[in-house]
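FIELD: query
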Amino acid sequence: MYLRFFYFGQRDFGGLLGIDTSEENFKTGVMSLDLPTFSRYLRVLQAEGQTHLTLSKSSLQVLRNLVSKAGSLSAHSSSANSTSAPYRATALIRSSLDSSARSEGEKGVDRSVSTPVSPVLPSAPAIFKETSVTPSVDLKGLDLESGSRVEQLERLRMRASQCQQCAHLAASRRSVVFGGGNPEASLLFVGEAPGPEEDESGEVFVGAAGQLLTKMIEAMGLKREEIYIANVLKCRPDMPEGAIGNRKPTVAEMGSCLPFLEAQIKIVQPKIIVALGATAMEGLLHEKTPMGKLRGNWLSFQGIPLIPTYHPTYLLRNQSVSEKRKVWEDLLKVMEALTLPISEKQRGYFLSKN
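FIELD: result
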C-alpha cells in the first residue's frame, strides 16, 4: 500500500463514524486498525504528531467505502450499546478493508482485530520509513556568511522559494511564505505555518491573527517593521479538495523545514524569541507541554532566550480579559528583558477594574 498524506479531521471523521471523539477514543477508535503492520505504522505517525495520510487510488476507495458504510452506523447505534465506540470504529474499518481486499483479490493478509493503542509504541516498519519521514532541508553550499544580513536573507529566501522537499506541500501551495521584517531585529516572533491569506499573498501573518499580532506589537510600543516574524513551516499545510480551514503541521513537515528558520535566526541574531502557540513550540523544541503550563516561562533556542505564549488565533477564539492579560504579562516580560520603557498604563492593560 503506497502511503503519503491524507487528512481526516478528528471531528469530521468521528462524526461520520458516530463515535465519541474525545482524545482517547479518537486514538483508540480511529488509529487502531486491524491490519497489524498498518496499525503499528499509524501509531508511530500518531506519536510523531502526524495527522495526515495520503493513499493510492485503490486505498482511497477503501476509505470511501468506509465513509459510505459509516453513514448507517449512527442509525443503528442503539443496537450497539454493548459495544464500545472504539471497538465499533475498529470493526467497521476492518469490515471495509476486508471487503475491499476480497474484491481486489488480495491474499495472505492477517485480519485479526488489533489491540488498542499502547503507550509503548513500536518502531515504524522498514517498508514505511521512506514515505513517513521527510528529510530536513539541506542548506550546505548556500552562502549565508558573506554580504549584509539583507543579502544573506535574500539568498535564503530564494532557496526557500524553490524548495520541493515536501512534495505534497510544494504541489498545493500558492506561495512560500518566508517571513520578514527588520533583519537586525532584537525581537523575533515565530508562528507555526501560513494560513490561506498568507498563502495567497506570500506575506507572513496578514490574516486576522496577523492583524491582532500587529496590535500586540504596537501595544508594546513597537512597530511591526521593527521586529522580525517567521513561521516554522514556510508552506501552508495542504488540505483535501473542497475542505476549508487549516490543519496543524505535522512533526515531519516542521522538521523538514526547520533549517530555514534556524538560518533566519542565525542571520537576524535576535535578543529574544517569542514562540506563538503550542505547535510552534513543538516545531522548535519538540515540546508538548500544554501551553497553559508552558507560557510565560523562559526557555532557550540556539542559545537565545525564548518565551512561549498563546497564538493570536487563541485570543480570537477566547476573548476573555483574563486570557488577554496572560498574553500581555508574557509580553511585559519581553519588554522588561529588552529594557523597553513600560508606562503604568501599559502595566495595567487587561487588569480587572474591580
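FIELD: remark
The first strand starts at residue 180 and ends at 181.
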